Each structure stands twice: as structure tokens, then as C-alpha cells.
Amino acid sequence: MKTFLRGLTLAIVVLLSIVAWTVLPWPVLLVMAVLFFLWTRFTRIGRQAGSATGVGISTLPQRVGSSSVVVVGIAGVVAVLVSLLAMGVGYRETLSKSGSADTAIVMRGGSASEVSSVLDHASVTAIAEAPGIARDAAGKPIASPELVVAANLPLKDGSGDDGSVQVRGVGDEAWTLRPDVKIVAGRKFKPGLRELVAGKGAQRQFAGLEPGHEIKLGSQTWTVVGIFDSGNALGSELWGDADIIASAYRRGSSRTSVFVRLTDARAFDAFKAALAGDPRLQVDVDTTLHYFSKQSEGFTKVISIIGMIVGGIMGIGAIFGALNTMFAAVAARAREIATLRAIGFRGPPVVVAVMLETMLLAALGGLLGGLIAWALFNGYSASTLAQGTVGSLNFELRVTPALLWTGLKWALAIGFIGGLFPAVRAARLPVTTALRES
Predict the structure, then answer these.
(1) 127-131, 315-319, 375-379, 410-414: lowest mean pLDDT where?
(2) Which SS3 state, helix, strand or coil, does residue 305 take?
(3) Which class for 49: exposed (0-12), middle (13-18), buried (19 or more C-beta within 10 A)?
(4) Which of 35, 51, 127, 232 has its CA 20 to 30 Å from the CA of residue 121?
(5) What is the pTM of this model?
(6) 210 neighbors 219 (Cβ within 8 angstroms)
(7) C-beta separation of 326 from 418 below 8 A
(8) Res. 387: pLDDT tops 50
(9) Is 210 left (phi over 0), alpha (psi -120 to 50) or beta?
(10) More confident of the two residues 162 and 121
């Protein structure tokens, strides 16, 4: 019964510790670390724990091989976890940069995305007349009716396969609405011609998107005349004249969406209310910041779940590696631990010493794994099918300080579990038994 209760107590301690370590913010954890340091300095048991820890750490060079198993195993877990989560962060940042609080998007009511929306010419005209829209120097509303369609182009990876690219039909208002979109090579397309400009992300992914080259969209030939950079999701698109694209895809005078610049962010509610109160319109209105951020939620959630599952599976393996290593270390140091117990060291200092040694190895593994993930994947270009759109989205992985902190927390959690049971065994081992085993 005692053995069962002890095992149950250990399991509860492990569970509560992991939950607290996951939920508590870093300032609270920092305070706890400071309190622990003060405990090792100003209490008798704490000083014993510090002395025992120093003895254990001093023998690490003699156990480089076994200790490296813990470090390398945990580093692998952290590197994989952080790199996977960096995909979600990069994807979310790319989409969130595509919008702002003082611009709005209007689509047909019930449309999940631009591609599923259709607005007729009368609706487009009515939207542009709504109050709250900013005006340019000529007094014209800054409203950009746009048409989004899908096209297939050969990928640049040499596989011979085609990929889906998003083609956006725009007018002059689109450049006014998005001053961050800059032509970096070639020139803008000319209205009335089958000319396109390609985003830098699309150029990296698809073949033939160099200024002066001709590409096939459907049955028609188009000329790429320029490359633009936007620093956001728009960089994965091709842009052309809205009227020509509408004619090529038999869309008439309809558009999929209208983007507008508001006088300021506070004008959004009035703008939305005006459109909702217009009996001619059945539309949904959102800020572009919220719209594009919402597009990233599904993908980010999936990547986070995959990362946690993969990290958890690898973490279990790392825990067993740490358990084996620390049980072996405790067995090799049985005489040393028995001597400490014989001269007056109690059980808790021994537990703390073994735990701190394991946590130190885990921290080294976490830092190494984070460094590997940052060196290999921070800024790495990737592409995927954009959630809620029809084209591939090009984005860069982002290894942020928050992700590195998450990886370090995982490493220390693995070290905590891997060191707890060997530490308890070392503290419970009778002195005579320990001397006999050594």
C-alpha cells in the first residue's frame, strides 16, 4: 500500500508540475527561480542541496558519453517542435501583414473568402459611395473593386507539375490603397493589355515569371512585365487589369470583392452600418486585419496540433533516454551518495541534486535544439495552399523568442520527468545497500 501511495504521489507531483510549468507566465517562473536560489543559500537543507549538486556537476566530464544522450535527445525534440511551430507563426505573420485596421473588405453575404464571392456592378458602385471612405487628392473615393480567379502554372522545382496561383484583377485604385506594394523589377501592367505583374513569392515558386516572359493562363497568352514586393500574402499573387481578366474568364462586370481605405479605424462601424442599412446590398464587411488574420487560424491550429503530437512522441523517447542515463548515473555514484547520506545529508538535498543535474543537461539540450531550429529554419521560404483561398501562399518560417521559450520549457519538462524517479530512488536507497551495490 505504501508503494502504491508513493507512486501515486509522484504521479500527482509530475502532473501538477508540468501543468504549472505550462500555464504560469515567465515572470512567475522567474520569481520561483529566485526563491529557490535563496533557499539554497540561506537554509541548511538548501545549502546541502547546493553542495551535493556541485559534486554531481563536477563529475559530468567523466560521464560525457551518457550525458550527451540526454542533451542530444532533448535537442532533437526541441528542434523539431520549434521548426514545426515556426511554420504556423510565419504563415500567420504573412497573412496578418496583409491587412490593417483602417482598411476594409466587402464581399457578398455568406462568402467565406474572395473566390466564393460575386458582386455585381451596381453593388460595387453602391459600396464606393458609402460614408467613411477616405478620398484621394482628386476627391475620388479610395475603393478598389477586385476580381480573384485561379490559374495553373508549372512549378519551379523541376518536377514538371503544375501549381495553383491566385490571379487578382485590379485597377489604379489598388496601388493607391496599398502603398506598400512596390515594383522591384520591370514596370506596372498597362490597362487594356494582357499584361501581368508577379509577386516575389510567386516568382520564387513558379517557372516563367520573369519580366519579358510569356505565360499561358487558360487558352490565352499573357506577358509578365514586372515583379512587385509587398512583404505579405499579396506577394504570392499575379496582378493584371481587372477588365481584361474579367473578359478572359467570362466574368462580365462583376467583381469578387471591394477593398476600401477608411478615413480612420474608428470609421469602420459607421461604414459597416451604412452598408448593412442599404436595401440594395447583401454583403459582409470586415477589416482587412481581421479578415486575413482569420484566414490563418485553421492552418496555424493544425500545425500547432501536429507539432505538439510529434513533439510529444519524441519527448517520450527523450524521457526514457533521460531515465536510463540518470538511473545509470545514480548507480555509478552510489558510494558517493551513500557517503553524503552517512555524514548527515538528508533525502531532499539528494533529490534536488540529481534533479538539478538532469535539468542542467535538459537546458543545454533545449538551447542546442533552439539554436539548430533558428539556424536552419528562421527565414526559410515555404509555400502551402492558402486556407480559404485558391492559390499557393509563399511565406517564411519565423523562429521567434516566444517559440524558443516554448522549446526550452519542453526541454526542462522532459528533464524534470526524466530526473525525478532516479532522484527519488537515490534518496531512498539505504546507506548500507548503496555501499554494497558500489
Answers:
(1) 315-319
(2) helix
(3) buried
(4) 232
(5) 0.76
(6) no
(7) yes
(8) no
(9) beta
(10) 121
